[in-house]
Amino acid sequence: MDVVRTPLIAGNWKMNLDHLQAIAFVQKLAWSLKDHDYSADKVEVAVFPPFTDLRSVQTLIAADKLPLHLGAQDLSPHDSGAHTGDISGAFLAQLNCQYVIIGHSERRADHHEADELVAAKTLAAVKHGLIPVVCVGETAEDRDTHGAAKIPVEQLRVVLEAISQDSDYVIAYEPVWAIGSGTPATADEAEEVCAVLRDTIANSHGQERAESTRILYGGSVKSGNIAGFMKRPNVDGALVGGASLDVDEFSAIVRFPDHVTLD
Q1: Considering only CA atoms, which of 12, 94, 75, 97 is closest in space to residue 48?
Q2: Quick one: which of 7, 16, 75, 119 could link to 237 by a disulfide (CB 3.0–4.6 Å)?
Q3: CATH topology (fold) of 36-49+66-178+203-223+235-241+254-258
Q4: Catalytic residues
Q5: Tens-digit pLDDT profile for residues 33-67
Q6: Cα first-last separation, the chain
Q7: Are the beta carbons of 201 and 210 closer than 8 angstroms?
Q8: Distance CA 261, CA 263 (A)
Q9: Distance, CA of 252 to chain centre
Q10: Is the CB of residue 235 less than 8 Å from the CB of residue 215?
Q11: In this predicted structure, what is the pLDDT of residue 1?
């Protein structure tokens, strides 16, 4: 029997919107989704604000019972201690964060996060009851040298070796060359790599875990191309960057089921 994976549309705000702007944005997003008869049973929506916005967004979601999940953009591998500027997974759990992005290509590049650190952060997220959204992907140079799947698979294997097979996690395939470029991978290119990633999970954590794990695509996702990705059997949602900062555009991405038809 095939496992039904609820699609996840995740909005990564990156370093944008202060806490007041975040409140206004989430209110508008909730109104837009309600106006278009959004159903949380069909598509799950999560927003990932900067750390300074988390408490404000959490309070709004809880008070107004909004059908949105909350996530953080990073966490420390440490629980507590002398780690100035770090944010513990325990703190995020107390804010009712459900998700946390780990190993985003910008963290890997800007902060030189190695695969081993990404694995340690993933382990910390699982320890504190958070669902890690583990990002893997290749640069244009990686793709030209090794092909599209080799680097993402190597990055994923390090993480899978660190956590138990009963851990709950999400994988986000984000080809670095597509992020912010306006030129996404094609739906077929995304499907090819996501299928290999699912096979990698099966080899490490078993077929049942592989079939239940959601794999997202990230990289210049827009309302105009999301339906193409979501037609592919191994793409279970999207990690949306710039387009997640536009209420109308992000709302339209969430409503992709309105535009997906069987070939």
Answers
A1: 12
A2: 7
A3: TIM Barrel (3.20.20)
A4: 104, 174
A5: 999 999 999 999 999 999 999 999 999 999 999 99
A6: 22
A7: yes
A8: 6
A9: 18
A10: yes
A11: 44
